[in-house]
Specification:
- The chain is an alpha+beta fold.
- It has one domain.
- It is 70% helix and 17% strand.
- The chain is built from two helices and two strands; from the N terminus they run E-E-H-H.
- It has a two-stranded antiparallel ribbon.
- Strand 1 and strand 2 form a beta hairpin.
- The termini are far apart.
């Protein structure tokens, strides 16, 4: 597994990290999205404290993650029921 040393700037700090080469674009994109949320919260709420801004972004990201997990669980259950139904139909037809 080859890794690449990169620096990702979040807020006003740079964070050095080693990432898999194939993950570099994803990691940089994640940093960009975080910075966009930081900027949006700063403008929307008039906050200058980076710790408060980062906490709000972390909270927002966690809520998004929970919502995505919920949707994925519902989708998985729907797929499982559909496959069971198809399996029953195939068994009946044979």
């Amino acid at each position: 597994m080859e890794t690449l040393a990169i620096k990702v700037k979040i807020g006003d700090r740079e964070y050095p990290m080693r990432v898999k080469i194939e993950d570099e674009a994803k990691i940089r994109h994640a940093g960009k999205l975080i910075n966009e949320k930081l900027k949006r919260y700063k403008e929307e709420f008039g906050l200058d404290d980076n710790q408060d801004l980062l906490a709000m972004v972390a909270f927002d990201c966690m809520v998004e993650s929970l919502e995505t997990n919920e949707v994925n669980a519902e989708d998985s259950e729907h797929i499982r029921r559909s496959l069971s139904h198809l399996n029953a139909l195939l068994t009946k037809a044979l």
